Amino acid sequence: MNERETLKVNTKGHLEIGGADAIDLVKRFGTPLYVFDEAHIRNMMRVYKNTLKSEYGGNGQVLYASKAFACLAVYAIARQESIGVDVVSGGELYTALKAGFDAGQIYMHGNNKLLNELELAVDSKVGCIVVDSFREADILNGLAAKRKVMQNVLIRINPGIEAHTHEFVQTARTDSKFGFSVSDGAAEEITLHILSKKNLCLKGYHCHIGSQIFEKQSFVLAAEKVMDFMAGMKNKHGYIAETLNIGGGFGIWYNDDDPKLKYADYADYLKSLITAVKNKAKQHSLKEPYLVIEPGRSIVGEAGVTLYTVGAIKEIQGIKKYVAIDGGMFDNPRYALYQSKYTVLLANRASEKNTEKVSVAGKCCESGDLIAVDVALPKAESGDIMAVLSTGAYNYSMASNYNRNLIPPAILVKDGKAEYIIKPQTYDDVIRNDAVPEYLK
Ligand code: LLP
């Protein structure tokens, strides 16, 4: 957890989030429940924005990578904090636009953007589209030409960095479905291809090396490699890139295997990146590029806590004790997908000592539906309220109605006040788009 005041144990021994007692929240909103601490989200957005301002003269932009958690309210917060957003689908773009987001502040990503997504992006005049294939460049040029507009684009390049993180979230290795590799000449080829297109304006390059990364060096190396590549394009082809978008990926605390970074540490990550970019610009006699970053997880991850009610408890003598909750992989698939570790506690008995090791099981109909394995807890009873920390990123956004379970609602808390930002689903919502052919009736 960060050094914040907004996540603590209060005098009743209850977990308190954003000034609200978790148990009061449960009485009012029920479980399972995603709780988001607004102050933390805003603080993280400000850390990045202020650092860019103080260390780089504001010559750049912070984009919130909305894939981490997208909904109308979070786009509204980003808008109020005057940062941009990155979107990766028509659905995220639509939500951002509905939230009143200035389209010029939106960057659009995706390794296989659909025609209707590209049309929506061009028609709504998004600030920049990050091109990820030759086919996309051609389609986009055609769409822009038809509308007699110039579309700003970046190229997603792949500098071949192996970041130390889960294989599934590494994105800039040479073997990746994302981007154009520098090493095999594809990045150069697409540069020339796009420069030849009349209705595309190539602003520069983007790269994203992966997610949940703590080594500063990985980000520095990526920035250096992209700057070297930019220098190569200038020297060889006279193309001067204005923008360097270095993606997101800063890690957060999930459990005690992870460092507990303070706000100042995130500022330091950005400072190291900025220093690397400045040095490389000097070395290659390049103008310092407009620097864009796209943090997602580090903005909303630690802001989120999921609250559950403990139900069945099952002990398999000598093997394991399972504590089952009213949620599971349908609201948090990250253990099932990546064996991600979490910190779990009993929100109603948060100051009690841990006395046993348990595994937290979800309610879905499969054995892999776990939230945490062998975690320490006080002796849990049915009816206890369990809190899983650092669930703000890639939990709601990856949730599903698996087994036709309802995706939990989300609330935003600030100064002890709480309001829905995602309303509860109902069973009617679950069947809303079902259709029964006449012959089956
Ligand atoms: N920019 C681009 C182009 C990205 O692909 C991503 C994440 C980000 C920014 C934001 O990265 P962050 O700051 O959040 O690390 N579902 C996985 C994470 C997938 C991340 C995909 N891209 C998980 O639950 O860990």
Q: How much of the sequence is in beta strands? A: 15-25%
Helix content: 25-40%
SS-derived structural category? alpha/beta
Tell me the overall shape: globular
What does this structure look like?
With 441 residues, this protein is of the alpha/beta class. 31% of the residues lie in helices and 24% in strands. Strands 4, 14, 15, 16, 17, 18, 19, 20 and 21 form a 9-stranded mixed β-sheet that branches. Strands 5-6-7-8-9-11-12-13 form an 8-stranded parallel β-barrel, surrounded by 6 helices. Strand 17 and strand 18 form a beta hairpin. Helix 2 (38-56) runs parallel beside helix 9, helix 5 packs across helix 6 and helix 8 runs parallel beside helix 9 (263-284). It is globular, with a radius of gyration of 23 Å. Bound molecules: ligand LLP. Ligand LLP binds next to helix 10.
Produce a short descriptive summary.
Helix content is 31%, strand content 24%. It has 12 helices and 21 strands.
Would you spell out the secondary-structure blueprint of this structure?
Layout: E1 7-9, E2 15-17, E3 20-21, H1 22-29, E4 33-37, H2 38-56, E5 60-65, H3 72-80, E6 84-87, H4 90-98, E7 106-108, H5 115-123, E8 128-131, H6 134-146, E9 151-158, E10 180-181, H7 186-195, E11 200-206, H8 216-237, E12 243-245, H9 263-284, E13 290-293, H10 297-300, E14 304-316, E15 320-325, H11 334-338, E16 344-346, E17 356-361, E18 370-377, E19 385-389, E20 410-414, E21 417-422, H12 427-431
Parallel strand pairs: 4-20, 5-6, 5-13, 6-7, 7-8, 8-9, 9-10, 9-11, 11-12, 12-13, 15-17
Antiparallel strand pairs: 1-2, 2-3, 4-14, 14-15, 14-19, 16-19, 17-18, 20-21
Helix pairs in contact: 2-9, 5-6, 8-9
